[in-house]
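Exercise: predict the structure of this protein bound to magnesium ion.
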Amino acid sequence: MFKKVRETLRSLTSKVSDTLSKKELSYEEFNEIFEEFRWVLSENDVAQEAIDALKEILAKELVGVKISRFTSSKDYVVDKVKEALRKLLEENTFQNDLVDLVKASPKPYVIVFMGVNGVGKTTTIAKVAFKLKTNGLKPVIVAADTFRAGALEQLEIHAKKLDVPFIRGKYGADPASVAKDGVIYAQKNKLDVVLIDTAGRMHTDRDLMDEIRKVVRVVKPNLKVLVLDALVGNDAVNQAKWFDEVVGVDAVILTKLDADAKGGSALSVILTINKKIMYVGVGQGYEDLLKFNPDLILNNLLEQ
Ligand SMILES: Nc1nc2c(ncn2[C@@H]2O[C@H](COP(=O)(O)OP(=O)(O)OP(=O)(O)O)[C@@H](O)[C@H]2O)c(=O)[nH]1
Ligand SMILES: [Mg+2]
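Solution:
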């Protein structure tokens, strides 16, 4: 389905550029071409406001312009579409650099990672720990997923490989008190960042949702990060809404971008959730975490 976003984007650029290579594009012509595109974006749950904003920006750039016969109309249109999308994606970009943010804040800086099952929370924490360490900061990893079998060991292996301190409770222990232990450990040992892993949870599980609320109430994190799978598509909106309602979401990390070869799914997710994207995951290695910037999506989406 998301393949369609990319295909339609292509057809939009080629239809507009066909006209522009011969004559000026009238608003009526633009409108007709765009409405076809709107339909595909809506089908993919891209928010109407985002679509309207895109239309307005594009209309300004494309209607009534004359292209010199020395310029390729195709390049011109692709450029304009890219610029318009860039503007929208920039509004959804977490502008601060996490390393700078931590350096400028009182220590320890506490981050809680949350999200539904299997989106990549644990892997992402290992990547973030690696990034912080590489930048001269001292993190501690805290396993507050005391729920899923194997979760503690999975995180412990990462901590050992990364040579980062690791705090865990027993299976079935209260995640909030494990998280608090992690913060106390960081205070005592003058560590810079506390990275708290939590169990995957669905909004339908009231107990687990109450539990994450308690973790947040007890440790009062500086940052609440929602981890989303870029391939999730339409459900991303719901996930963002649930966690926002329960504890609030300060930033999003979008994982598995490497699996969204064409970028359409990620584009839909970003334009619909109305949250700032901080990092994107692009693989399973520790270094596969990139600071989000619109070009990561655009280059994929509009490459010819
Ligand atoms: N290709 C790819 N795979 C990823 C990425 N991030 C995570 N994964 C994989 O996704 C799977 C699930 O990752 P986890 O980190 O265990 O996910 P989780 O959210 O902690 O899962 P639960 O704790 O069970 O809810 C693993 O196989 C990871 O290697 C990514 O950016 N790209
Ligand atoms: Mg996990």
